[in-house]
Every structure is written in C-alpha cells, then in structure tokens.
From TrEMBL:
Name of the protein described by the UniProt record: PucR family transcriptional regulator ligand-binding domain-containing protein
Domain of life: Bacteria
Residue span(s) of domain Purine catabolism PurC-like: 9-128
Pfam families associated with the record: HTH_30, PucR
C-alpha cells in the first residue's frame, strides 16, 4: 500500500462514480493530505497545502469574478483540487476558470448529482489516517531492515542501492569535496549536468527533490539526495531519506574509525621502530606484510618540519605525503610516514645500491622542494639523518635527524646541507654546547677580539676567519676582504697583539678556528631564541 494519496486515487472511491474532470487533468497526481468543505470566499489563510476542497458553490453562486478569485487563492495555497456539486447553487463553470485551472494543472471535478460531503470526508480521512499508521509501520520495517544490513555491508553503495530499490527514485550522494555518486548510474553527461543543476537551484519544475545532510562529528560530510521526474516526493519519502542518511553516517563513521584505528596502530608501531624497540624479526615481518619480496639495502630517516602546520587540512597533508611517495619510489625508495606535532617523519628504505643512495635522494628532495602545491611552496626545514645499513638501527638515523633539525634552528642559513653527514664541525659544536659551558671556552680564546670589535666597530673577527681559511695567505685574504695589503698588515698586527704572536701555530690555530665556528653557532642560537621569545 502506498503511504500517500493522490487526487486520482480518491476519484476511485465511493461517491465519485458520477464525476467529470473538466480542468487540470494533468494535476491528478497532486498529493492529498486532507479534505475540507469550503463555502467561503476568503480561503487563502485557512489552508496549509495539499487539501482537496469540496463545495456546493453557495459562496459565489453565479458571480464569476468571485469564483475566479477563489480558484486563484486555492492555486496559490497549493490545494490539491476543487470538487463542485453542480445543480444546487452552481450550474456552469466559466471558461476563464477552466483556462486558469488548466494553466496551473489544478484539477476541477464536478459532481453531477447530489452527494453526502460528510460521508466523503469521513471515508477519505479514515483512509488517510490508516495510511499514516501504515506509513509508520513501513518506516519501522525499513529502519529494521536497514539496521540489519549495516551489520553485513562494508560499502556505502549498498545503502544507496537499498533506498533506490525501496523508493524507486534516483539517488545521489554529494560529498563535501564535490565528489558525486549516482545510483542508478547516469551514463549521459548532459543528463547528469541537468540533474545537478536542478538540485542546485532547489526550485526546479523538472524534478521533485528531497535532500538530507549526512553529518559526521558535527560537520556536513555529504548530502544524500533523492529525486523523481515521475511523481511528487512525499513526507514518507523524506522520512525514509532521513533514516537512510543516519544509517549512512553510521557506516561512514565506522569506516573512518577503522581507518583511524589502523593508522594509529601503524603510527604506534612506526614510533616503536624509530625509538629502537622492535627486533629485526619483528621489523622484517612488518615489512613482508607490505611486500613479501622486499629487500632493503639500507635506510635513512628524513624530517620535514612545516611552518604553521595547523593551517593545512588533512587532505593537504595526505596529498603531500602521496606526492613524496610517488617521487621517491621512482628513485628506488620505499617509505613510511608518521606525523608528530608540526613535523612529518619519513622512513626511507633503499632498494638499490648503497653507493648511489645520496645522489638519488638529493634528486628526489629537489623535486619535493620545487613542487607547486599547498605545502610544497611553503617554508620548511628538511633534515636527513645518518644513513644506516641495518634496519634495526633506524633509531640512530632518527636521532641524528633530530640533531640536524636542532643545528639548523641554531645556525639558520649557515647549514648549507640538509644531511647530518655534511654538518661536520657543527655536530661536534652542538654536542659540546649541550655538555659544556661552550660560551666560557669561546671567551677564553676570543674575548679580546670580541671586545675590540664591539668597542671600535672593527672587523677583526671577520679578518681572522678569512685569514685562517686562506691558510695565512695575505694576498688572498686582502682580495677576499676587498682591502689593500697595508690595511691587512695593520689588522694582523692587532690580532698578534690581542691573541699572541703564536696564534698561527698549528694547534693554537686549529683551536681558534674551532672557537670561531663555535662563536657563530652561539650567536645564531641566541638570535633564534630571541625570535622565539618575541613570537611567543
């Protein structure tokens, strides 16, 4: 039994044997929600829509203008139709009324014999109430069947098929990322565009449309839409749609939960790997799950620290990780990714010769840095840890990548390489700074130079660094400093006075050069700390 009544259904009931539809035959599919007997001329504010009106015509009698006005009010109020008893007060229907009703597809039905309006209303109202009870029963049965289906299915397409088969309507799932799923599938691109345009307008006369949001965790994840070009969708259709949208949200939430749980378990395992918890057997078993034939020639950990990490959506991060994966797979690496705070941690497993890993890695990282994407063009720090031959030593590569990030944050642009292996002296300086009072040691050797430059705005520190890097060549030093030799001789004399005439002796010279790098590291670190405090 249908859960709704149309005008044409009522015309098959008792007391409608001797009737004539004189206008609006195309509107016989209008829904009927109630029946009213109306014998007044101002009806506009008394109707809610979809009422079938019964009348003897006593309100207008032979006044065609009043009759025309009443029909217009009924049309504007979205009434289902008008049934008139001919003979008692009304004998003819004006052509203007018939034309108006035909234009609006508004049915006008004539009783050619006297009929008991009270029996008609009682019969139809009883039928409507029975249909309401039937609708509630059908809705409950549908919900139970849908809940049972949720226990066995793992794809939302099955739910779309279920509502389509039940209501026999076009079903559309419109995701928030503008992905669209049609069921049944529409092959014609023009038809798809027409349907989507009708849905977007929301007031299309081509389709009857009902829509319901699919909400996950407080956000509109998608929109479930049903539409039909054959019948008007009813309140029952809307209730079925609402139940289906709820079930769909439950299924999608379950899928997201399972995926998130899998990711959390994988992240937890990978965290254990970089922390050095897992045995070689456990690691190889984990890798064989992804590729039974996988054979690694070595591994390295890379950190990519993003500025304003929170401004990126999960979709941006996922796209970036997929992009990195596609690039480095071409370079002979497999990789696993972890997110920690504002940092992406990549474990790269080398599948080719170890002698070429660094060259291939540089080529891949160059492409990553040059990619034009939401993340690719943003500022980021990249740190590559120590390359290890043994996959159980990944934690060592991870720790050295963290050390590389720390050094980069201290010395900024002076870190000319992303690789831990290329930082050389700064690795030693960083370790000393953590365990000793490096500032005091630097002052022991360089304090006279620092004080002189500060007092006289001199350039002795710069001169000393260039002079040492040129291995004491006065000609090369003067050339790199863009000064004449006489000025250089004067500065060297000042350096001998402040540092001692033996400052170029082998051991003392090496120590002073090391202290210069340490001083620059401390200055850069102090500036970085000040910037952080200002930002805070």
């Amino acid at each position: 039994m249908k859960s709704y009544l149309m005008v044409k259904d009522i015309l098959e009931r008792k007391h409608f044997e001797n009737i004539e539809v004189i206008a609006g035959k195309e509107g016989l599919g209008r829904l009927v929600k109630w029946v009213h007997v109306v014998e007044v001329i101002n009806i506009r504010k008394l109707l809610n829509g979809s009422e079938l009106i019964l009348s003897t015509g006593v309100a207008w009698k032979d006044n065609h203008d009043i009759f025309l006005s009443l029909v217009q009010q009924l049309i504007d109020s979205d009434a289902a139709g008008l049934c008139i008893e001919i003979g008692t007060f009304t004998s003819t229907i004006p052509e203007l009324v018939i034309d108006l009703a035909n234009q609006a597809h508004f049915p006008i039905i004539l009783f050619h014999h006297e009929v008991p309006f009270v029996e008609i209303t009682q019969d139809i109202h009883t039928l409507l109430i029975h249909r309401q009870y039937q609708m509630i029963s059908d809705l409950e049965s549908y919900s139970q069947a849908l809940n049972k289906k949720l226990l066995t299915i793992d794809n939302y397409i099955e739910i779309l098929k279920f509502i389509h088969q039940y209501l026999q309507v076009q079903v559309i799932l419109l995701f928030s990322n503008e992905e669209v799923q049609f069921l049944p599938e529409i092959s014609s691109s023009n038809e798809r565009k027409l349907l989507l345009k009708s849905i977007e307008k929301k007031d299309s006369t081509l389709y009857s449309i009902e829509r319901n949001p699919v909400q996950l965790l407080g956000d509109n994840y998608a929109e479930l839409i049903i539409c039909s070009d054959e019948r008007v969708l009813t309140e029952f259709d809307h209730l079925i749609l609402d139940r289906t949208a709820t079930a769909l949200a439950q299924l999608l939430l379950r899928e997201l939960y399972v995926e998130e749980k899998r990711r959390m378990e994988e992240t937890e395992w990978l965290n254990g790997w970089i922390e050095g918890i897992h045995t070689e057997e456990e690691i190889r078993e984990y890798l064989s799950y992804f590729n039974p034939k996988f054979k690694t020639k070595g591994a390295v950990v890379c950190l990519i620290k993003l500025e304003s990490f929170e401004q990126y959506s999960s979709a941006d991060i996922t796209y970036f990780k997929l992009f990195v994966r596609s690039i480095f797979e071409q370079q002979g690496f497999s990789l696993f990714a972890i997110e920690k705070r504002n940092t992406l941690i990549f474990i790269f497993l080398n599948e080719r010769g170890s002698s070429t890993w660094k060259k291939r890695f540089k080529q891949g990282m160059e492409r990553v840095c040059n990619v034009k994407s939401q993340i690719g063009e943003q500022k980021k720090k990249i740190a590559i840890g120590k390359y290890v031959e043994d996959i159980t030593a990944i934690h060592s590569s991870y720790q050295t990548s963290l050390e590389t990030i720390r050094i980069q944050e201290r010395i900024g642009n002076k870190a000319e390489s992303h690789f831990y292996d290329d930082l050389h002296i700064y690795r030693i300086i960083s370790q000393l700074n953590r365990h000793l009072d490096l500032h005091e040691i630097v002052l022991e050797y360089l304090e006279p130079i620092i004080a002189y430059d500060k007092k006289y705005n001199g350039k002795l520190m710069e001169t000393l660094k260039i002079y040492l890097s040129c291995n004491g060549s006065k000609q090369e030093t003067a050339k790199r400093l863009y000064i004449v030799r006489q000025t250089l001789y004067h500065r060297i004399q000042k350096l001998e006075k402040l540092l001692g005439p033996d400052f170029m002796n082998h051991e003392k010279r090496l120590t002073i050069e090391f202290m210069i790098y340490s001083y620059e590291y401390l200055v850069a670190a102090r500036k970085a700390t000040e910037v952080e405090r200002e930002a805070y």
